[in-house]
Amino acid sequence: MDGNVGSAENINIPSVLAESGPGHSNARGEQANPFDQLAAPSTSRVKQIWAIGGGKGGVGKSLIASSLAITLARTGNKVIAIDLDLGGANLHTALGVDMPRNTLSDFFTRRVNHVEKCVTPTGIMNLDIISGAQDSVGVANVGHDEKVRLLQNLRELDADYLILDLGAGTTYNTLDFFLYADLGMITLLPEPTSIENGYRFIKSAYYRRLSLCRRLDNIRPLIESAMDSKNPAGIRSPSDLFREVNKVSPEAGMRLKEEIERFRPKLVVNQARTQTDVDIGFSVKTVCKKYFGIDMDYVGYLDYDSAVWQAVRRKRPLLQEFPNSKLVSSLERIVQYLVKRHGHQKNDIL
Q: Which residues contact 258 (CB under 8 A, 6 or more apart)?
């Protein structure tokens, strides 16, 4: 295998790729395409939506989401950070604010009629928050119609940037929030379990995107079959899928190739201690190209820094509590890179 992830971390990537994708359930609400029902807002201030996801919990998604939001706000942009970890919301704590009065629980239970009613100031200039659901039983499994309603509301918000802090795992809701963003970022730790779960997230988002793409409707059965590791066609990897699609239709194979090239997630390695840890990002990039055909963009790494847990214990944003730390400089560089290189990137799945 290319790169040093397999040898250094003992990750069996082919076995991860052979596992079932997100399509475990046949529930119509989960399988339905949420983007089919969305209407483009007539006017929208929102320049971009950024989503921060990952395969498992504890990899620093909320830290990165809150820090990116603060950094963007400091450049004069109006930013709203949105906690979409519906079963374990804690973005408000990372931003140093108390639980807001209105949260997404109120939106999903129709106590408020628009998500803008959940927008709460953070006390940081240009930065507001929409806190995740807290008190409603089962709200982490929000239904298809409510998900569509939320997605429709998001681009109607009065903000330049929306930063989505996603939950862990590969539920349909999490994947759809990730795919809805203009810029999707995956964070992982230089640890075997995190790397393995990171690959699972990438694979699941990859197949979910292909299965929802309207241009690929005529080969959707093959794509959905590929999401089941026991499929009769023997499709065990994206390269197998491409081979089978080409057998059916070279034209469809070309469309599939074009859609794969449009999927360009970003990667951040968090808590890097050594050069080997830093290099894991390049290895992940290489493996994704080899097995998926994806040109993943490794946008940077964050050094391990004890300032993080100190800021968390004090319930204060890292950028405010330790403004001179090396970690803050790294975060600022990542934001500058993303704005400069991908500032005009737009979602093309709608």
A: none
